Amino acid sequence: MSTISPLWTPRQLEDLVHVLARDSSKVVLTDHFLQRLAERGVTVGEALRCLQRGAIIRGPTYSAEHKSFEFRMCEPPPRDIVCVVAAVKPVLDPGEVFAVTVWEVN
């Protein structure tokens, strides 16, 4: 069994996500993500800002179940209000980023 390697460095993926997240129509909000927003009192704006300005602090790792690369993004202090787990499909130029889950930083 072979593993699938990321198509980008973490920095390249950050830059890609920043660009995609500037256009909210390119951010797919999963049902799980929307549930966590409501449960945790996080706004869509806070989560989008994290995707627009944040840094990848974990991953990317390939999820065979979802056929995508998943990663965790947070903004550096003092803007570190929320963290977002997001995903992109393993294609050279993905047209969207999937917001998987979100939580407040304590």
Briefly summarize what is shown.
The protein is an alpha+beta fold.
Characterization of the model:
With 106 residues, this protein is of the alpha+beta class. Helix content is 30%, strand content 32%. The chain has a five-stranded mixed sheet with strand order 1-5-4-3-2. A hairpin with a 4-residue loop joins strand 2 and strand 3 (68-74). The model has no long low-confidence stretch (mean pLDDT 92).
List the helices and strands and how they pair.
Elements: H1 10-21, E1 27-29, H2 31-40, H3 44-53, E2 55-63, E3 68-74, E4 82-88, E5 97-104
Parallel strand pairs: 1-5
Antiparallel strand pairs: 2-3, 3-4, 4-5
Helix pairs in contact: 1-3
Number of helices: 3
What is the CA-based Rg, rounded?
A: 13 Å
Helix content: 25-40%
Instruction: Identify the overall geometry.
Output: globular
Largest beta sheet: strand ordering: 1-5-4-3-2
Number of domains: 1
Q: What's the count of strands?
A: 5
CATH architecture call:
2-Layer Sandwich
Residue share in β-strands:
25-35%
Mean pLDDT comes to 92
Oligomer state of the chains in this structure: single chain
- CATH class call: Alpha Beta
Q: Give the terminus-to-terminus CA distance.
A: 39 Å
Order of H and E elements: HEHHEEEE
CATH domain topology: YaeB-like fold
Q: Which ranges are low-confidence, i.e. pLDDT below 50, for 5 or more consecutive residues?
A: none
Which class of secondary structure composition applies to the elements? alpha+beta
| Major pleated sheet | 5 strands, mixed
